[in-house]
Amino acid sequence: MPKEKLTKRVVDALKPPKPSKVGVKVRETLAWDRELRGFGVQVMPSGLKSFVIQYRNAEGRTRRSVLGRYGLMTVEEARKIAHEKLVAVSKGIDPAAEPSRDAEALTVADICDWYLQEAEAGRILGKRRRPIKASTLAMDRSRIERHIKPLIGGRRVTTLTLGDIEGMQADIARGRTAKPRSGSRGGAVSGGEGVASRTVSTLHSLLEHGTRLGTISRNPSRGVRKLAVAPRERRLSAAEIRRLGQVMRTALEHGEHPTGLAAVRLLLLTGFRRQEGLGLERAWIDADSRCVRFPDTKSGAQVRVIGQAALDLLLDQPVRASSRYVFPADWGDGHFTAVAGTLGRLCTEAKLDGVTPHVLRHTFASVAGDLGFSELTIAALLGHAARGVTQRYVHIDEAVRMAADRVSAEVNRLLDERDTGRTNKTLDGSTRDRVAV
After folding, report:
1. CB of 92 within 8 A of CB of 191?
2. Which among 81, 178, 276, 428 has the fewest CB atoms less than 10 Å away?
3. Of 427, 437, 319, 317, which is closest to residue 364 (Cα–Cα)?
4. How confident is the model at residue 108, as a pLDDT?
5. Low-confidence spans in the chain with pLDDT less than 50
6. Distance, CA of 130 to CA of 364 (rounded, Å)
7. NAD: present as a keyword of the record (predicted)?
């Protein structure tokens, strides 16, 4: 981008980078100052803006150093620091080689901030030796800001003990950091054993990265005992699917969002994760092969087979010329995001408790199990990470295509079937007395 003097107006106007092609990952964009050579602003895909300097050290290697985050630091403050450091470079001093602060004084909050900054810049590798995904970082940031920092953020890493960490876990489980939703935006902060256990996992992971990369000398969370969390068992029964379908048929007449209704139905017909369904782009749909070719998922790039009922639903969605998404947002160029709200209203009307978008995925898998399909086939339908050579190729097997078709057809039938209120057909074709739920 053309160089100009960096000012607050210029930095505010900088936009996060976007991929030029479908499936192409972007790291960051850089805007350089016209007056002070080597001083610039780094803009991450998440929208985070940080001041940086770039220079060649005494060995002739190009180095880049982050000065601080925009918002916590003004442009003029950053310019002054950049000038001092670049002057030091001219004297043969490498700013990146200088310890930013005494490792003994690092607090938990400091190491959390270091982790988020390094991970967002793509300098920390996660699973499969690849940069940590933005969705994972968003969850990590939430746990850090809502639980870790309020409870132990001020503690020095060198004095942190297993007792401190397990005490934090107990506090989260008891709801000490829970907060109700405030205002019209932003969700409530929940506690509970599941949140507590996952927060400890996040803390252990970032401390392990800090130890491996030499930022801290040891990981004080090694050996921590995480709370055992019971697996989620909630699924929709056949009767509940019928009831949800009945509500969906009348919801549009009562003002429910048609995109939200279609998204809920797709998650039930495919078992897609919420973001896989909402972020689905038309270019990824292969109608001839009856599959979706995801350039990236939680488990990497995948070809996911879908049933005919799901494909028909996708192809029936209205096309907006200005959007690449199957489920576009009402405003802007993003995708629809409010499926949880739509599902919540539907379930309130249908008197169904404890239903989340993940429950729809679990329901799809459970229907597949009820129809007699193997765990290997169900794992392929859901896009679980392959654990062996055979599983890496099962997604293209004709048996998986047949399974996807049968499961989506069965769910579609239940959604469209009217509940007589007397008996329910089971998935194997027999009948049983209706059980009140």
Report:
1. no
2. 428
3. 427
4. 95
5. 99-100, 388-395, 422-437
6. 30
7. no
CATH node for 238-433: 1.10.443.10
Report in angstroms the alpha-carbon separations of 106 from 114, 153, 270. Answer: 10, 10, 47
Residue carrying the six token digits 């205002």: 183
pLDDT at position 424 is: 45
Amino acid letter, 210:
G
* Packing angle, helices 398-416 and 258-270, rounded to 10: 130
Query: Which is nearest to 145 in space by CA: 104, 189, 176?
Result: 189
388-397 burial: b if 16+ Cβ within 10 Å, else e: eeeeeebbee
Collapsing DSSP states into helix, strand and coil, what is residue 54? Answer: strand
Q: What are phi and psi of 251, to 5 degrees?
A: -65, -40
pLDDT digit string, tens, across residues 49-59 = 999 999 988 87
Residue 148 · residue 203 · CB < 8 Å: yes
- How is residue 29 written in tokens? 């964009």
CATH number assigned to the domain with residue range 8-98, chosen from the 4 options 3.30.160.390, 2.60.130.10, 3.90.1310.10, 3.40.920.10: 3.30.160.390
Task: Compute the distance between CA of residue 317 and CA of residue 325 in angstroms, rounded to an integer.
Answer: 10
Q: Which residues of 198-207 are buried (b: 16+ CB within 10 A; e: fewer)?
A: bbbebbbbbb
- Give 109-168 pLDDT, tens digit per residue: 999 999 999 998 888 988 778 888 888 898 999 999 999 999 999 999 999 999 999 999
Helix (H, G, I), strand (E, B) or coil at 189: strand
CA–centroid distance for 348 within its chain: 26
Q: Which amino acid is at 370?
A: D
Helix (H, G, I), strand (E, B) or coil at 143: helix
Give the torsion through C-alpha atoms of 83, 85, 88, 89, to 10 deg: -100
Res 103: pLDDT: 60
Domain 104-212: give its CATH code: 1.10.150
Return the pLDDT at 252.
Answer: 86
DSSP 3-state assignment of 33?
Answer: strand
